[in-house]
Amino acid sequence: MLDEKGRLFGKINIVDLLVVILILAAVVVVGFKFLGKSGALPGAEGGKAKITFTVQVNSVYPEVYENLLPYVQQEGGDQLMASGNLLSGYVVDVKAVPHDSSTVSINSSLGALVLPMDDNLLDLTFTVEATVPNADTNELGTQEIRIGKSHTLKTTHFEFANGVITDCQWEEAA
User: Fold this and answer.
1) By the number of CB atoms within 10 A of the CB, which of 65, 76, 78, 150 ranks highest?
2) Could you tell me which of 157, 160, 146, 50 has the C-alpha nearest to residue 96?
3) So what's the pLDDT on residue 41?
4) Do 49 and 28 lie in a common domain?
5) Cα(133)–Cα(129) distance, rounded to whole angstroms?
6) Residues 119, 53 share a domain
7) 51 lies in the same domain as 11
8) What are the tens digits of pLDDT across the range 55-74?
């Protein structure tokens, strides 16, 4: 196998062969690190999906609704954000209906406590259109988009921490 000059099969030096193997191993490790398990670069187009979902927010003062309305009605809607970063999603519509209960009940070990609420409150339904980078996880910013999940709706102009996703439609991104 080794000839008199220390070459494997008379072709390549054993030290050179070890160096080539180490370089190939390093390239494979770096490739897996950058490409990930999916074999696609981070942010690649493959898994993107367009999502249209609605978020229900109850018991909102009418003044809040009237002040956020111009931002939602502007062309394109109001852009979503999370952790100080703008997201690829927009609140494109909002509908308001009168809140149907003038009391809230709090249950505890001592019994139920019923508190009166303002009669003029509104229930708001926001429509959001967004593109998520991975259709499998449905993450938009730091939140997963799933029907029935509580949701903080935060845009560049308003924020509601007590929303619930009531509907969601998925389609592949163009």
Assistant:
1) 78
2) 160
3) 45
4) no
5) 13
6) yes
7) no
8) 999 999 999 999 999 999 99
- Report CA dihedral (131, 132, 135, 140) to the nearest 10 degrees: -140
| Cβ contact 49:40 at 8 Å | no
Q: Record the tokens describing residue 19, joined without a space.
A: 């160096």
> For residues 149-173, b (16+ Cβ closer than 10 Å) or e, as one string?
eebebbbeebebeebebeebeeeee
> What pLDDT shows up at residue 6?
65
How many domains does one find in the chain?
2
Q: 15: part of which helix (H) or strand (E)?
A: helix 14-35
CA distance 135 to 50: 8
Q: Is-contact 101 108, C-beta < 8 A?
A: no
Phi, psi (rounded to 5 degrees) for 168: -155, 130
Residue 78 one-letter amino acid: D
Query: What's the one-letter identity of residue 167?
Result: D
**pLDDT at residue 45, as a whole number:** 47
Distance CA 11, CA 90 (A): 63
Domain that holds residue 24: 1-42
- In this structure, what are the phi and psi dihedrals at residue 71, rounded to the nearest 5 degrees? -70, -40
> What is the Cα–Cα distance from 90 to 24, expressed in whole angstroms?
46
- Residue 16 sits in the same domain as residue 89: no
Query: Can you list the alpha helix ranges (DSSP code H) found in 39-135?
Result: 62-73
On whether the pTM is more than 0.90, the answer is: no
